[in-house]
User: Fold these one by one.
Assistant:
Number 1:
Amino acid sequence: MGTRQAGLHVLLTVALGVSFVGFLVGTSPGDYDLETPLTQSSVDLGDGGVPMARSYTQMLRTPRGGGSGWETDLAALRGPSRLDPVPLEGRSIAVDLAQRATLRAFDGAPPRIPHAVRQDSAAECLSCHDQGLRIRGRLAAPMSHRELTSCTQCHVTDEAPMPGGEPLPADPRSAPNTFAGRLPATAGPRAWEIAPPQVPHTTWMRERCESCHGVNGRDALRTPHPDRQSCEQCHASSAEANLRPGSGN
Amino acid sequence: MNTDRRSFLKLTALAAATARSGLALAEPAPDLRERMGTQVRWDKAPCRFCGTGCHVQVGVENGKVVAIAGDQAADVNKGLLCVKGYHVGQALYGADRLTTPLLRKNGKLVPISWEEAITVVADRVEADPAGFAIYGSGQWTITEGYAAQKFIKGGLANNQIDPNARLCMSSAVTGFLATYGVDEPAGCYADLDEADVVILWGNNPAEMHPVLFSRIIDRRVKGEKVTLIDIGTRRTRSTAYADHFLQFNPQSDLAIANGILHLLVSNGSYDKAFVEKHCSFRGHTDPPTLQGRAISFEEFEAGLAPYTPQEVERISGVPAKDIRMLADLFGRRDLKIVSLWCMGMNQHTRGTAINNLVHAVHLLSGHFGTPGDAPTSLTGQPSACGTVREVGTLAHALPGGGVVTNQEHRALAEKIWNLPEGRINPTPGYHTVLMWEKFSTPKEEGGDISTIWVQVTNPGQTLPNRNKLFDPSRKIPGKFLIVSDVYPNATTFEADLVLPSAMWVEKNGMFGNSERRTQQWFKMVEPPGQARDDCWQTIAVAYELFRRGHASMRDKDGRFLFDVAPGVPVWEWKRYYEVNVDERLFDEYRQFSRMKHKDLAPYAEYVKTRGLRWPVVEQKDGTWRETRFRFAEFDDPYVKPGAEIEFYHSVSEDGRAQIWSAPYDPPPEMPDAEYPLWLCTGRVLEHWHTGTMTGRIPALRRAMPRAYIEMNRQDCDELGIRDGELVRVESRRGFLDLPVWIDGRATPPPGSVFVPFFDERLLINRVTLEAHDPFSKQPDYKKCAVRVRRLA
């Protein structure tokens, strides 16, 4: 009985030791620099080789797949709270709108995806874009509309998703496009100086105001009172912007 | 461009640059506090791309399209669009739009005037009226197709007109004709809201009809249960949402459908009451005809005998238990089942047969005629139904469902068009494959098509086996190719005369979508340069012939065929928009629509709505009512009271639909030792057809910049091929070098590869087969035998 218990202890100690070493150096054979982030080519061992598994420390450094290139910051994962003070100084609506516009063909277009995504399903998107996420200065905006299932129906990635392929003749269709999209409104009209501004854009597919104006919004677009949640109580939507019948459209 | 716009765009460019470099944006921003975009005017239009027929709202400012919004008032899409639809406005603004007519002189395309261009076309007609053909498409607006149809069938009377839709949905047409005696689905998109089970027959709507796909799967978010069954030859984005994936061997969909029929009969679980009241049985004659012959239930049953679940498993690779599952679902009366299909069943050498069999499954099981119970084919082009199928721009057809071989139909057309008796030729012209084969054959060897005028399509990229059907014509003296298009493409590149066209909201237009919905829009912006409406081009050529005294362009009173607004010379471009030519032509065309109960309302009614589904019938109070569910008494006014269901154009002339018997036959080409892999071709979400438009939209081009070959990892391992490696895919007809994508957008099973056809640099149709269905003449782009080898 005692011998068996001692044996178990030894086994557990060894297992713990192995997993600790595995955590630090990975489970695969070979020696490589822990500091160098893994790239496609450093994984690829060429003919007959197998890619090495990555150590957990490496995974922390360079997560793979959707959102690759995003650095994690455990402290920031909690995200800002609705009750955190909102700084009003040093904010520029123009700068924030311009940044927002870089991913859209025109105001109202579904934003493009600035990172790689899985090609065969949209299962991962909500993990960041449901509530939104800020990691080291980069923003995963919360989605602006009710839950829809097929994300890639409207949102496409900005990067060629397939590997390799060149050289090819230049695409004759890649001549510039002269389309000039509608610009975003910069502020909603107010009835008088301190009246709550009216929503200056459509609220169709943008009914989740917190997408831009909530705690995970861009600074200058954030509401100074994120604790209040019934936005349309004070900020009327626009019949004209929503193309409602009889609104002159 | 005002200062605000300029400074905002500068800031945007800066933001994009800093986002890439990771630096913070430090530039102080100009104050842009006043509202922008208030001058935008909005109007409705159906989307330019697929056959779903979503309505968009088009925002126009200073004469340019500046924004697109999903139309919340539209029943089809209820405010939602797909990525193509949201960016459809950009399709107008590629910098290389064709803006002037171009004529090939000494091997080079050089700019000419419109007057010269119209003269050249008229000369070609005069030189050989019998050999002058028009090749159009399901992207013709209804009135453009109608004008071309009248020009060829009522004017030149050689019946040489056929559309690219021949390559796209003609097997669906023959399936509807053989089963119901009249074309187009009985149900509509509302079925998708009611169905308990949706079956995808070789269909990938997540990419090809994304808005309809969302309409199905978004029901799950609302807490509804909808079972999605994907019967496919590869795993796609649609498979990712499916409850069951039934992977079958190409062509064996025929066996699967027969397997379901077999079990419905042998289990006695078919809907006896429905069949007794509303169905007859039909089998093939020898030689086979589209109408076939009446057969008894016993003969039908005997035909199904071989298709036991085990035998179907052997042929199709689908486990017998899954065949039983399908039969059990169809055997239940408490479920509502919709079948959806598109190119998988249509681009099929037995396309008519598999269409008939899927209708048969629904009819035998009574899953027909109530909301949520329907066999529904989807179309890929915005007006494949509205223009090709209803206007009848096919070599054998007349508007409204008529055929040139029928004396009464010819007489009706001659009456509406005010033609001398006997003007319309009773002999059908050449179907697409034959038309291009004759064009690519010297006249002395029987190639009697000397000129083809291509409108709104890109056959240089979409014809099967281009090496045989297209390229030879470019070297044969006396063959002349005219192309009306909006951008340079694989066809204009080879053309002798290029005519620049207006597109989408640069002109008035009408489309008809997959659910019998006729849609209308107004011109909102000017076309660039000298680009002009296709409809005007046809009328202008017709007038030039009329002016020269060509009798074909006169009616029996000597009047010009297209004198649609007496007093207004619409053939002069500057006066074309003095009247609404679309309205005049449509209201003439709608006289045809009563013949097959495809009643269309007056043009003015479509202006008021986001489309109406035919038959649109005038009510006692003068309003017009659309029909959602055809052949069903509760909704279709043409069904006899008390009949419940009535197929009032029945092949058997007794109000019954036909349940067809059709065996499985192996495909004309199968993988063998020399060419061991199946090749399938198709579309991807981002690009529409040949990418002439979507390829010029930056977001779509970036997301899907080039064609590729999807392969299974196992095949790659065996061949020593790595992900991203350039390989050569070759068939008995041609070859193409493509990069490999493993586990990418979709995953084909071992032994099978897939290549999208949108990339004009990588023309997969040099590899595909031109074998086609005997009735629909539709080629099979979905299966042929190829081999893949490494280039390195």
Number 2:
Amino acid sequence: MKMRANTAIGGLLIGVLFATAATAAFWTPFDPLKVNLRARLQPPSALYWLGTDEFGRDMLSRIMAGAATSVLVSVLTVTFAVMIGAVIGVLTGYLRGWTDRVIMAANDALLAFPGILLALAVMIVTGANKFGIVLALGIAYIPSVVRVVRGTVLSIREKEYIEASRVIGNSELYSMARHVLPNSLAPVAVLATSMFGWVLLAESALSFLGLGVPPPAPTWGNLLAASRPYMESAAWLSIAPGLCIALTLLGINLLGDSLRDRLDPRMVQG
Amino acid sequence: MRSNRGIAAFTTLAMSAGLALSLTCVAAVPALAAGGVLRARFNADIRSTDPGTNRDANTDGVMGHVVEGLVAFREDTSIGPMLAESWDTSEDGKTYTFHLRAGVKFHNGSIMTADDVVWSFKRWLDPATQWRCLSEFSDSGITKIIGVEATDPRTVVIRLERATALFLGTLARPDCGQTAILHRDSVGPDGKWNVPIATGPFKLGEWKRGQYVDLIRFDDYASRTEPRDGYTGAKKVEVDKVRINIIPDSSAAKAGLLSGSLDIINSLSIPELEELKTHADVKLSVTPALGLTGILLQSNDPLLKDVRIRRALALSLDTKEIADVVMQGTASANNSALPIGSPFHGAVEDQGYTQDIAQAKKLLIEAGYKGQPIKMIANKRYSFVFDSAVLVQAMAQAVGLKIDIEVLDWATQLDRYSKGDYQAMAFVYSARLDPSLSFEMLTGPKATQPRKVWDNPEAQEMLRQSMLTIDTAKRQALFDDMHRRFIADVPMIVLFNGSELAALRNNVKGYAGWLYPEPRFWGVSLQ
Amino acid sequence: MLMLGYLVRRLAMTIPTLLLVAIAVFALVRLIPGDPVQVMLGDSADPAQVDALRRQMGLDQSIPVQFGYWLAKVAVGDFGHSITNGLAVLPLILERFQVSAIIVLVAVTIAACVAVPAGLIAAWRQNKAADLAITAGATLLLSIPSFWLGLLLLLLFGLKLKWLPVIGYVPFSENFGQAITFIILPIATLAMIEIGALTRMSRASSIEVLRLEYVTHARAKGAPEWRVLARHVLPNAFAPTWTLIGLVLGHLLGGIAVIETVFTLPGLGRLLVDSIFARDYPVVQGCLLFTAVIYVVVNLVVDLCYPLFDPRVAAE
């Protein structure tokens, strides 16, 4: 019963997020890039609901535009990492042997590579833009997906129903498609929701270190990073994007949990 | 120990003139210091303790307390005597005779003589030392030093191949290690750098890499008697020790100042200054600086090679407003290559660009501009550079110029700068202390020096002239002429010179910033 | 015997991994535009000076030649010297690593001690008030950017309450008590963030295990609930969480740069980021290779321990 509330709240939060992002593509109260030097660092008011930043740009408009960018970056990154990672993970976990060893060596090499350098290098090669960061963070997260999927596959493939499937003469490929993939979905769903959060957070951390999606185009990460010098005097600048990140993550996680429960084949069968 | 050194000093001095004796008496009496430890902050570690070789701005800033040269920069960027009492210049400008001050002691207690000066110059000019400024004294540089001789224990004669206006200024340059006079024990028997044994008001204390550098008061320091003046004048140390904490994060530094774990932080950014204004236990020091912030325009670019487009951009800007907003009233607008604080910055240099939207639009139509985007590189390492870029973008939009800002990290931007690989770039030049050098950093043939932004052969010839002549009036006329051409060519739009901002706790007395962007901890006391 | 063979094979496998890392690191670092000499000399660099310094540092050689030199030296434990300050790279890394390692280890230990039981309780009380509270708490912690949390803690405890020093670092060898005051906040920040991630993982895997037949069996046999949880669920639920801890440890060494920047700690993460910005190739290469070795070792240990926690995956 409670799961329904999870789904409802999560769905609502994410619905609002996507609606905001979609709206921002067509309309924002002000131009998010429009500088207005006569209205610098205004606290929230009837005109500027979330106040203005150090260039007099409307924060609400920037948050809305930021939602669009942040959502796009996160969705693309997670999709990219999960799709590639899950396939590799299932293959290595199921086939084992030399394939597994070679892929896991490469995987470990990639995992052992701090994401920061990867992000910097990739972004410089592709140019500092949002697709650079998708590629950079996507590559950085693939190994985690591979590892988790492979771990699950390793523990599942010993289970009776897989044995049974094999015994009754189903091919390896069929067993894999029929049983392993759906069974790995639950942990991957959990990982993917966490990853959505990680990407949002990683983007803000990279912005903080000066490596994120470059301003002046707003993302929640660089809005938060840019608000830092004004934490004491203009707290609204940091509260709004911080809260947006937190609420989005809350929504994503709630939704992810209920999704997980639905995807779990044993739940469905039971 | 101290009494032994005192006796040694006395016997040496007894052989010198009476004047010298009286000077030593001044030096031997330690300043009536309140003492204590002054806790300062730098944003990055120093590179080494070896001045003028393995260095950066922070290294220069720390070493400026430890080492001294024959001459030093005064507050107004003119050159004053430091370890030299005075100097004579021959008529042809090729021979300099330096008369050394008497009774100046090295940190190890021995007295500085003309021999130490000769040894130091020999070391600087030895290619193995890798002196940053050696190239200035080579065939491609300003002149060559063909002889350094000690004619008596207090007189040194330096002979140059050709006369130059830049000789003393180059010697005094902080990034050249102020061509410090060092004791020969500063290097090991193998000639490798060991530790600076110099004549400055501070000795180098412990250096804990990545954490702090200590400066210890040098009790036997022989101070000059004039008031504090740039890197010369009196240097009275009023604290026992200065601990320079290495704190890269400026928010953390600010927090440290407010919580009382730091006494002074300098090189503040504007937002930090704004925030600190509201705290009662902190006071602020604002000083105009010599750096140059502006927009470089690549005249090799297919679009920007048209001077009308460059000029349209210049006319679209309200530089005064940009300076006001970006620097929050701490700096004035300046369109000239010469910093406002320079003695050569006069009425001519005040003539820059005046915003003229109609004229800008007209120029764009004449040039056939059709909204092609201009990519402008900026960085977030210097917030004022990025902020300027945003404002320029906004103002250019009003005349129909479309600018896209591309933010790069500083190393990448520097790479693009030195290759000339950009359309437009918001950039900051570091302080140049001589007007010739201010133009030298801008003008040159792009074919051989792609980093130069202004390729104008006539300007290059004028620049050459300005380096050769010592006559101030002649130099001023050359700089005025260059300024007019610079404004007409619009190779770059200078916006402002910035300012050096420091915040101190209320109990810190006597601190003053100056044109050069490094702090000075002499004359500063804690109460 | 079987175990030993596995160990040897795993160890042998790390060598190509590390070699791959070495090549990738070297190539990637050189791909980044910019030049250490240029950064050192700044805007007033004169090309002749730049060339001279590059020659002197061997940066004018071709990249494969530089790589060969570097690898040959690394093989005998010589990581070279920093371009910016001339320090030997390996001692520098070890010194900085101590700082990071203490913070990461303590924070992850604390996080695991809190998160694993919390996740278990949440799973056990699935969809009840306790679960909702724990999940909400974990989600909230997970949602806060680390530097943001760090700064808030710094503002609160350092500036407003003045309980803890705001800046600096004292090694444990110098003054134990003082050292603790400097690393409490970074550890707290890191631990709070990690508790979020680990609790969710622990909860998810506990739910998984709670559904397994042997748990139902144990319950049916009349074992008390706490015994079922402690004996049957906890060890099994710990396995996936253990994998995540391995991942976390590795990633933290890169991610800790942010925390180290906020709290001005001279750790490995900050050394790496500073060196990247300064294009200090030997230090960047050294840091990355070192991190890679640590990471590979941690994961080896995790893998070797995996069978201990999950009897279902026996050593092959």
